[in-house]
TrEMBL record:
Domain of life of the source: Eukaryota
InterPro entries: E_motif (IPR046848), PPR_At4g14850-like_plant (IPR046960), PPR_rpt (IPR002885), TPR-like_helical_dom_sf (IPR011990)
Protein name (database record): Pentatricopeptide repeat-containing protein
Organism: Rehmannia glutinosa
Keywords: Repeat
Lineage: Eukaryota, Viridiplantae, Streptophyta, Embryophyta, Tracheophyta
Record PROSITE patterns: PPR (PS51375)
Ranges of the PPR repeats in the UniProt entry: 106-140, 207-241, 347-381
Amino acid sequence: MLRTGICPDNYTLPYALKACVNMKSLNLGVSVHGHGVKLGLVFDNFVGNTLIGMYSAFDDMGSAKLAFDEIYMHCVVSWTVLISGFCKKGDVYSARLVFDEAHVKDRGIWGAMISGYVQNNCFKEGLKLFRLMQLSGFNPDEASFVSILCACAHLGSLEIGKWIHRYVQKVRMLISVKLGTALIDMYSKCGCLDLAEKVFDKMPDRDVICWNTMISGYAMNGNGERALRLFGEMQRSGIRPDNVTFVSLFTACSYSDMANEGLNLLHIMYNVYNIEPKSEHYGCIIDLLSRARLVEEANAIVQRMPILGSTSEEAIAWRALLSACCSHGHVNLAEAAVERLVILERHSGAYVLLSNAYAAAGRYREAQRIRKMMRSRGVEKTPGCSSVEINGVVHEFIAGEKTHTQMDEIFELLEVVKKQLDSLQ
């Protein structure tokens, strides 16, 4: 087009920029950007918004912000694309600054920021912004509901999740596959399998993700038989299972002490559906065998395991074996697993598990030596975290912290509980 002397316009450049993203070529995108500068088109919303999206796709948020600043008059799309770009890179702080600067906010801008918080595990911030969105007079759309349901699932905030479900029913919003799956996930993670089943049964259409979510719900709640029964229904319905399906099934069998069924599923996965086992599958199978006290068999599988795609993937299987060795007192095997894990990753979990295994076996000097080794190598243990919902409010506790406003009352009640337990002994 350029060689024939035809001048590109504000419709031509966006499609060329999208082609550069699909080709994963930042250099070509920069070249097209240069043509836009020469032709004076970077001030246009259509071209500028696509430039922001193009640079965001390559995680070059500095250039994306410059492209944003060059636009003569920003529209809601400009703000939304830039917020989404920062969130995709994990920079929710910069995303929130852009959100606060937006002169006009529509549901898309609110939804982009809420989704960004949830995608970056800032679940409380996502819930707060969702409430602020409602107070500002905006009705949430399906995407916002899906994001908030995800936050509720991770925080265990059942009451807010139920309220969202009632709201969706009140406004007669269609329960799409995506929204229905989010509801099933939320109810499952909050321990309400009966409500998850009701949503699942009423859905007119289900994709493989929806089936996987329901199977995973049974798995995390320790109901292996129902998970296997649902897998049979999934097969009869004509839905082809994928990698995630079998991870959930192996987990269900592991939590329900169904080692033989789990090994049979491994056969089906490999021979019927031609799915090559990945690190997640190996980790689940090793956990499955370990719970059945077949630690030597689990070790044999790890030793025969092919070289996986990355060290982090291989570490998943070795961590599962290490956990099993520590649970059943196989200290020598645990030592070998730690030696391999230390090579693969720098994580406190391996050291802590081995130290605990030594302590359980009465080898306190070795346990102390491992703890000293952690300190000398600068490996810090990540503190544990838990949360509980009371009257719709989620309270979060981190091991060792004493900043909760009701900490004195909590300690007093713990003391009462301790005395009652002591009196029972």
